[in-house]
Amino acid sequence: MSQPAAAALAQLVERAEALAYDVEYSAVRAWKERHPGALAIGFVPVWAPRELIAACGALPVGVVGGGDKVEIIKGDACYQSYVCHLPRSVVELGLNGRLDCLDGMLFPSICDVIRNLSGVWKLLFPNKLSHYLDLPQDFDPEIGGDFFRAELAQLVELLVARGARRPTPASWRQAITEHNENRHLVEELHALRREQPWRVPTSEAYVVARAGCVLPATEHSALLRDYLALVRAVPRAPLDNARVVVAGAFCEQPPLDLLKTLERAGCYIVGDDFLLAPRFVRADVPLEGDPLAAIANTWLAHAQPHASVWTRAGTKGDDLVALARKAGAEGVLFAAPSFCDPALLDQPMQEAACGRAGLPHMHFKYSENSGQFQGIREQAGTFADAIKLWSGA
Amino acid sequence: MNDSIHKEPSMLRQKELIGGHYRKLARAKEAGLKSAYTFVPGNLTELLLAFDVLPVLPEINALQSAMRGKSAEYIAKAEKLGQSEDVCTYVKCDYGMMKSGNVGPTGERLPDPDLLLLSYTGCFTFLKWFELLREEYKAPTVMLHVPYQGDGAATREMRDYVVKQLRRVVIPALEKVTGKRYDEDRLRHILALSAQAEEDFVAVFRAARNRPSPIDAYFGGVYYIGPIFTAFRGTQAAVDYYRMLRAEVDARVAAGAGPLTPDGPMPREKYRLVVEGPPNWTSFHEFWRMFHEEGAVVVASTYTKVGGVYEDGFRHDPARPLESLAEYCLGCYTNHNLPARADRIARYVQDYEADGFLIHSVKSCDSFSAGQLVILRDVEQKTGRAGAFIESDLVDPRYFAASNVKNRLESYLQMIDQQRRGATACAR
Ligand code: SF4
Ligand code: SF4
Q1: A119 and chain B in contact, CB less than 8 A
Q2: Contact criterion met (CB < 8 Å) for A341 and B124
Q3: What is the position in ligand 1's atom list of the atom closest to the CA of A341?
Q4: Which sequence spans correspond to the domains of chain A?
């Protein structure tokens, strides 16, 4: 049983990795061929109302950068050296035609680079939809909620004007149900990794989650289900690794080799903030009532504390400490993209919170196209060893 | 400015106003006055004045620190305390200043805030900055979220959202901190004064359409925006200052005179430029000198619109007090999307008959800088003129490479010369 399961697991992970890093967006192109006339709408990190896009009959597509898979030429002509890497690889993908399959792009309000990228997109691709999605920073349903609902209503109109179908009660129900289910499965993946990290290496879980960027929710859910079944069936022995949470990598994604490096250095990653789109809001969108208000209010009440969201109550870093506690983490690795203001400005406050909580931590920076991890490997290895030493003491 | 140089009365008045404000701040606690820390873009000065609250603007503290040569020390302190070398240096400079005793530009200590009023307009980093200050000061904090004009317009929904926050969040917070009731009539009176000053303010900058331009709308402009962008919008002092300034500028136009620079009157206007982006503050006078020594005058700049865009007709309106405050916030320059920013720069080149445009891109500021290379090409296409691109920083002296900046500027001006010669040759 375990032999074929292991082979099937390896096959699934290979397939997921191919999907996750396919800069030709073949899965999106194939979906569009199967759904003539339907739109595909890209969105950059960290969150977009995927259920709304799907309710309009369109495919939400996560665009998380080109990583080390694209050579940056035109993108560098658009961004100075002191801007992070993500926008240059996204622009590169756009300018070399790889994103032609997308009929529009959404830019959620997480930082000024993404904000300005929405304008860059308008200038570079005047015939495509480019929309800045202003997420509320006021959390009162009658204030921020009304504004956000109006924002979402406007988004529906923008999509419909581009040829998407106007959502119906049935399409809303289906889209919300499918995305709620997807959220549960993503959460199950993370829960299993927390409980048995030796079964769910992050380098695998990551590609399985990232494959969801280019798949409709139901297909991604099927992939997740298969993966969860297979990892439960394949025997994998626990190692004496340090349990860590990785924080700060919510937008520009860490290279896969970096994740593997951390694992090889003796870390079990039991919590992270990669690929937040399906788990940014930590609750189901209700099926009852006005769907736009339902999405808006669920966001207001259940969006996770994040660098891009005003910390209205408590102290910065409390949530990270809580996450680490929940995951049984012994330490925190702050991994931020170079020049990422949101992550890097949060970091000292979060480090202070870890300090108060007695959680060991270290930090390093990366770029999505970094290829050399020797220094990080040594740093993380020493950190993991020290944790094990302390926990044994 | 060099003290041996003749100063016009408005310059002295401006210095007095700003200095007076800092002195008032230094004595705020003993005088029983409350202070609110807030930001220049989307500032709610009139509303604060209506509650007798003194504004403190951390970005202004940062730039003042840089002009006094203190920013390197403050930034180093912030980095030592864990701030990354990659992030906005305004934040680090202010944070370092706070950690060094919070001594303001007049050498006196600034009061701790009674309120942190986060006017979240046009810059994401503001949000992080105030989270950081809140951890330090433990002061009550209020967030005013001003939506970005992503699709190029401020909508009614956006305005209503801001008004609701003003009414239900900001005003109650001010009432609580000050123990005073919101007095809308008083606010209307203050807004009427704002509108008066704004008329003269617009006229001053518009005067740069003359040849020669009587003002430098960037280097000189930063002095002109001082009172209206900081603590004085809505005061009689601002009304008087801008009237005085306008009269002086009108007199220079009548005399056919160019701008005053720190080294004296600019003798000859040779190049008319438009500039996008904030200036460098650590070498501000050196930077300016590079321009005026070459006879280059800045006839329009975007930086002088960060605290409000008035040239399109917006005025604070006492008849619609909160609505007009909301519209003001929504309209600040960095709250405009990139195509609108590029359009404005191209329009300036045309309306001010500029010979070219220059983007001063600062490492610190994603709000301004991210996407500026795309703006550059768009403006080039729209105007048919090549632009210049110069990089440095706001307040971190490590990033101001004087010889590079000078070389770039000189090459650009030479290119303008060549184009002129080419145009003359073609016309023959
Ligand atoms: S990596 Fe950071 S700075 Fe860059 S786009 Fe993402 S959130 Fe913004
Ligand atoms: S990012 Fe720019 S606008 Fe924002 S605080 Fe820094 S310098 Fe100011």
Answers
A1: yes
A2: yes
A3: 3
A4: 2-170
| CA B369/CA B362 separation, integer angstroms | 6
Task: Tell whether A221 lies on the interface with B, counting CB pairs under 8 A.
Answer: no
Mean pLDDT for each 10-residue chunk of chain A (393 residues)?
86 98 98 98 98 98 96 96 97 98 98 98 98 97 98 98 98 98 98 98 98 98 98 96 98 98 98 97 97 98 96 89 97 98 97 97 97 95 92 61
How many angstroms does the Cα of residue A353 sit away from the middle of ligand 1?
A: 23
A66 CB near a chain B CB, below 8 Å?
A: no
If you classify domain A2-170 with CATH, what class do you get?
Answer: alpha beta
Mapped to the 3 state alphabet, what secondary structure does A160-212 carry?
HHCCCCCCCHHHHHHHHHHHHHHHHHHHHHHHHHHHCCCCCCHHHHHHHHHHH
The pLDDT value recorded for residue A1 is 47
Pocket flag, ligand 2, residue B8 (CB < 6 Å):
no
Rounded to whole angstroms, the Cα distance separating B223 from B219 reads: 8
Per domain, the residue ranges of chain B are 9-182
CB atoms B86 and A144 under 8 Å = no
Chain B residues inside the 8 Å CB shell of A78: 371, 373-374
Contact: A315, B135; criterion CB under 8 Å: yes
- Compare CB distances from B128 to A109, A138, A341 and report the shortest one's residue: A341
Q: B145 vs A136: CB contact, 8 Å cut-off?
A: yes
CB-based burial, B64-92: b 16+ in 10 Å, e otherwise? bbbbeebbbebbebbbeeebbebbbbbbb
Closest CA to B231 of B48, B108, B66, B109: B48
Q: How far is the CA of B124 from the centre of ligand 2 (A)?
A: 8
- Whether domain B9-182 has CATH 3.30.70.360: the reply is no
pTM (two decimals): 0.97
B31-43 b/e with 16+ CB inside 10 Å = b? Answer: eebbbbbbbbbbb
Distance B226 CA to ligand 2 centre (A): 17
For residue B236, is pLDDT > 50?
yes
Kindly give, in sequence order, each residue whose CB lies less than 8 Å from that of residue B66, ignoring residues fewer than 6 positions away: B93, B281, B282, B284, B394, B395, B397
The tens digit of pLDDT for each residue in A207-239 reads 999 999 999 999 999 999 999 999 999 999 999
- Amino acid code (one letter) for B110: L
How are beta strands B260-261 and B264-265 bridged, if at all?
antiparallel
Tokens standing for residue B288: 């300016």
